[in-house]
Amino acid sequence: MTPGVIWHPACSLEALRARAGLLAAIRRFFEEREVMEVETPLLCQAGGTDPNLHPFVTRFRRPGQAEGVPLYLQTSPEFAMKRLLAAGSGSIYQICKAFRNEEAGRYHNPEFTILEWYRPGFNLEQLMDEIDTLFVRLLAPHRDLQPSERVTYRDAFRKHAEVDPLTASLGELAACAGRHGLAEAEMLCGADRPVWLDFLFSHLVQPFLGQGRLSFVFDYPACQSSLARKKPNNPLVVERVEAFLDGIELANGFRELADPAEQEQRFDADLLTRRSQGQFLPAKDQRLLAALQAGLPDCSGVALGLDRLLMRLTGAKAIDEVLAFPVERA
Amino acid sequence: MAVFSTNEFKGGLKVMLDNDPCSIIENEFVKPGKGQAFNRVKLRNLKTGRVIERTFKSGESLEGADVVDVEMQYLYNDGELWHFMQPESFEQYTADANAVAEAKKWLKEQDICLVTLYNGAPLSVTPPNFVTLKIVETDPGVRGDTSGGGGKPATLETGAVVRVPLFVQTEEVIKVDTRTGEYLSRVKE
């Protein structure tokens, strides 16, 4: 036995109890609303294509098999849950682990817990209502919060960064960074518009969101569409929402993209970006494309980081304070 | 010199930024769920002492700075430069007013200081946490006053001025905390 090895959990027993209480309250919430709990694989044959997500890759060998095939630890249960929706599951939710390589810090552990749910027939506004109701129920016993606010991405950006994220040229975005003393932005972001928006949003906008109340930011720029549907009659934005509390991103939701052709185009665009960055090229998830082809019901869905929510409930300053065994102790 | 990537940035690491040596204070990983990862880093410029905030793309790197802290004995001031010696090697170094800065008012000959060397030359000087210095001037206090309430200014042999209790007199030796500039006690010689 090696002396001095740390075997204790990183979090307090109180934090363990807070987590258990949170999980029970979430399950009660969805049971009341007749949303079915589901499980989907953590080990998947297809990884996502998002250039900013780096999956853990392992190998599956059948008994006696020498080589085996690569399997990915999921970065999100989204594709599998959409296949359940296409199969007619109706409203579903899942509490599961997700894994993201190259992510570690005060708000990131490479293995973390996601609550994800889907609501056929819900538009983005109804989804925001439901997220809000759940948050109020979970947070009210611990935090004294004002009624939540809803603001478009464009308005939030104009208010805090004083520039229009949808129409500003790259030069105007650079001037905005310069005004705020962020001279390094130009070198970091170059001619990459999504990176410019991520940079300015995370430095100038996000710190002001969710102060004393939950902030919903919706209608994201089309260049940050991810898996959201385009907004009808406004080509500049997509039906995507994020929720913030205390300047921290807690949830990300979409009116889900259901068109298989457009989904495949977005996969291809991701792969092109990955190729230009010299990243590995995952296979497109053919099973998702086939499910969309068969028909995904019109629905909205959202993923919520439970560890971060727990941080907001308990006042923890770092994610390690709410995890039994963060990666350093795993 | 070694090169350090953002994932190696941690408090105390010395790196080169804009051609100046800096010490990393804090490194925060920032990443939207769907978006670019950044590291927001707080650094202290070791030349100016100023704190800078700078963002890097995760995976970027900076060159390490040739900065080391060395314990040295303070020898003397020649009117322009301050002279120090490494006690083991007897190697001598000279520091200018910029490097000595605020430390100069605490420097007493023979005392051991921490000298920060950058590319082999003194960049800054940290005095010992506690120094014992003689009072060269202070108003005569009221005899018998031991309460320590109120106090009065006293000029020390190195030029520093600290507040001392009323009962402390000129020619007495006192102990001072250089980090706060506060009087701690009298010292019997």
Radius of gyration of chain A: 20 Å
Computed structural class of chain A: alpha+beta
Rough outline of chain B: elongated
Sheet with most strands of chain B: 5 strands, antiparallel
- Report on the biggest sheet of chain A: 8 strands, mixed
> Proportion of β residues of chain B?
over 45%
Quote the distance from N terminus to C terminus of chain B: 48 Å
Would you identify the regions of chain A where 5 or more consecutive residues have pLDDT less than 50?
A: none
Query: Numbering strands along the chain, what is their spatial order in the largest sheet of chain A?
Result: 1-5-6-11-10-9-8-7
Shape of chain A: globular
**What is the end-to-end distance of chain A?**
17 Å
How does this model look, in words?
The complex is a heterodimer of chains A (330) and B (189). With 330 residues, chain A is an alpha+beta fold. Helix content of chain A is 36%, strand content 22%. Chain A has ten helices and eleven strands. Chain A has an eight-stranded mixed beta sheet, sandwiched between helices. Chain A has a three-stranded antiparallel beta sheet with strand order 2-4-3, with no helix packed on it. In chain A, a hairpin with a 2-residue loop joins strand 9 (237-245) and strand 10 (248-255). In chain A, helix 1 (13-32) crosses helix 10, helix 2 runs parallel beside helix 9 and helix 4 (153-161) crosses helix 7. The mean pLDDT of chain A is 96. Chain B has 189 residues and is mostly beta strands. Helices cover 2% and strands 51% of the residues of chain B. Chain B is built from one helix and 16 strands. Chain B has one helix spanning 97-100; strands at residues 3-5, 14-17, 20-30, 38-45, 51-57, 61-63, 67-77, 82-85, 92-95, 112-118, 121-126, 130-138, 152-156, 161-164, 173-177, 182-187. Chain B is elongated. The mean pLDDT of chain B is 91. Chains A and B meet through helix 7 of A and strand 3 and strand 5 of B.
